[in-house]
Amino acid sequence: MSTSVTAAAGAPTASSPVRGRRGRLGPREWVLAGVTALFLLSFVRLLTGAQDIGSSGTLAASIALAVPIAMAGLGGLWSERSGVVNIGLEGMMIFGTWGAGFAGYQWGPWAGLACGVLFGALGGLLHAVATVTFNVDHIVSGVAINLLAAGTVKYLSGLAFVGKPGGGKTQSPQIDDLPSVTVPGVSDALLSLERQRWFFVSDLAAVVRGLVTSVSVLTLLAVALIVGTYFVLWRTAFGLRLRSCGENPVAAESLGVDVYRYKYIAVVVSGALAGLGGVFLAEVASSAYRDGQTGGRGFIGLAAMIFGNWRPGGLLIGSGLFGYTDALQLRQGGQSVHALLLVLVLILAAITVWRVVRRRPLVGTVISAVVAVLLLGWYLASDEIPGDFTGMTPYVATLLVLSLSSQRLRMPAADGLRYRRGEGG
Amino acid sequence: MRNRDWTRVALGFAAPLLAIVFSVIVTSLILVAAGDPVGTTWRTLATGGLSGALPRNLVNTVNLGTTYYLSAVAVAIGFRMNLFNIGVDGQYRLAVFAAAVVGGAVTLPRPLHVLLIVVVAMVVGGAWAAIAGLLKVGRGVSEVISTIMLNAIAGGLVAYLLRRVASGQQASNNIATPSIPESGRVPGFTLLPSSPLLAYGFLFVAILVGLGYWYLLGRTRFGFDLRATGLSPSAAVASGVNVRRMVLAAMVLSGAVAGLVGLPELLGKTYTYDLSFPAGLGFTGIAIALVGRNSPVGIALAALLFAYLDTASNPLQILADVAPEIVKIMQGVIVLSVVIAYELVRRYGVVHEQRRVAAQLSATRPQTEEVPA
């Protein structure tokens, strides 16, 4: 019911003023979409026997991989809502991983957390100085910070970690684990339910079990930060002012908002969040700083934020999606990603049918049908996806998702534009 | 008139000099803070360490600079119309791989063989960049994100294809494509008589690319449209430019030049593509294009500077016990401070211009009004 309403509203009002609301789905639609996705996965699991595409282990791994992406994306959200594009998230994340390694092995994981967040925030401060005070192009400054971060941590590692037990030029000594939380009793019960491998019920049990079993405190912190961001940015006067800087800084200035100050706060918070994502990589996803640990997750976080239409809820779903594709390739990669092909075929077939029924332009319909047939052919002709390809899954998923969704998105109106105080005219 | 031009030139040189001085200070401070020997580090960087190493270093600098130059020009073509081609890295790796496979598979007379390799590299680089261009004009996907994703995909693709191509070979730790025969190689030449090391013959191709870049962007209608689109898309549309086609054209052109990036190394030194082929040249190109301000000459100077720093930093670990990565920090600081310095110089230039015009106006006007100081 609800989906048909949004679809019907979407088609005829394409050029009407309500267009901005078109891509936004309410909680009911998201729940429905989630249940549909779960149905699809359990169906494919039964069909292919690829058990790992819906196991609680995969889901736990997905969460662990989604948190850093979500934190980078949340950093991007803060920054871009204030009108500063932050492609330097990757560099700030690198600073975060190194800070966690540096303080973590000496004074414990909590010190590592503080230090990583601080380092990320310093990266953000640098970006703010360059873009806000000196009006440097945002992408240029971000790219420079990425280069700077990669070189700096390599140099610093040589000074700080060489000669320490387990440390070296490319990695820090071991960091102790942060505590994690398991809801007692529930986890075991769900495990036995999951082992039954019933259609849908077992998959649901796996999802819930993944959410309640050995959840790191940092994951809880991340969830709290996403919810907190929503409240701060959309439910307080501070957030309204911050977002007004990203939509129309000149108007904000005329109302007495200190635009520079808000942009500085937003970009420094952005760096701190990216740093937190880095800390998670170093302390939870692994247990030491390693060179190249971020692996482009700052960029994927940015893509997740764009996919989520510059909103916290969408960002969460986007990073969950990327975390999941990332997790799949780690757990029986070849087989799982191979099963994922079938999921893609089903989705594309559904799109094709929908387009035929709705009489959408023929070219797109033919393209989706042809791609579906090709993928089905690939699926039937092979047993596994080669290892090199499974590693590409998150990147291909990012490209696919963005190319399907980016036309429905609306970024902050003054995002990435130059602004100088008093030049509004 | 003449006077003003000189001020402009002086201001144009002031920014990079300011940035280099600033980065030397910052780097020295970092060295001091880390307890590394400042004097020895700079002396090693300036002299190339061992006595007599300088000529060899200079030839290496020119060779590395050739590669950097091509990469930076590829990036700069995009920059001129506000397109951020972060994907030069993936484009050149895929292109040089394809070029190595094709070059190693055929035997042709020398000029044709080299030409074939160059064309293959440019086509593959352009085609890979076209994906990002199509996604941008067709689906509105930001090229910044799509090219970064395509970099990662290109890496996986090359690794996979390399394994397939090299599968027939003898077991070895470093799998590689078949070696390109003599007819496909570009011979080197003696740059400095005091060094036995040869400079890449591809240097001349890089110079040609620089001339072509200058001519295409500065002297043709296409270049004018491209720069106009970069400065103001709405004004370009109003004057009849098809912005979508320009985006695609600029992206493909940028990718085609990116396809050349790996060739100096491939045709002048390695003759084969393997896992140890240099990666990350595309990102260095971004930095160099920024420092060189997208001008063909500026990029050349910046490429040589970066290449020299990279070459001279090699003996740092042995001679001064300093991690060579200090040079990476220095390069990063140079990039960031160069863009800030350009902005400061631009602001100063505007103020300077306003003062000059005001002074001229008040001089020509009769001195009846009281001008408050």
What does this structure look like?
The complex is a heterodimer of chains A (425) and B (373). Chain A is mainly alpha-helical. Chain A is built from 18 helices and two strands. Chain A has a two-stranded antiparallel sheet with strand order 1-2. In chain A, helix 4 runs parallel beside helix 6 (138-160). The longest helix of chain A has 26 residues, at 56-81. The model of chain B has no long low-confidence stretch (mean pLDDT 85). In chain B, a hairpin with a 7-residue loop joins strand 1 (189-190) and strand 2. Helix content of chain B is 73%, strand content 1%. A two-stranded antiparallel sheet of chain B has the order 1-2. The radius of gyration of chain B is 24 Å and the shape is globular. At the A-B interface, helix 6, helix 13 and helix 18 of A face helix 5, helix 6, helix 12 and helix 15 of B.
Secondary structure topology:
The complex is a heterodimer of chains A (425) and B (373).
Chain A: H1 2-10, H2 27-48, H3 56-81, H4 89-107, H5 109-133, H6 138-160, E1 180-181, H7 186-195, H8 201-212, E2 215-216, H9 217-235, H10 237-247, H11 249-254, H12 259-283, H13 297-307, H14 312-330, H15 333-358, H16 362-381, H17 387-390, H18 393-405
Antiparallel strand pairs in A: 1-2
Helix pairs in contact in A: 2-15, 3-8, 3-9, 3-12, 3-13, 3-14, 4-5, 4-6, 4-12, 4-13, 5-6, 5-12, 7-8, 9-10, 13-14, 13-18, 14-15, 14-18, 15-16
Chain B: H1 2-34, H2 38-47, H3 54-79, H4 88-105, H5 110-139, H6 143-165, E1 189-190, E2 198-199, H7 203-219, H8 221-231, H9 233-238, H10 243-260, H11 263-270, H12 281-291, H13 296-312, H14 316-320, H15 326-364
Antiparallel strand pairs in B: 1-2
Helix pairs in contact in B: 1-15, 3-7, 3-10, 3-12, 3-13, 4-5, 4-6, 4-10, 4-12, 5-6, 5-10, 7-8, 12-13, 12-15
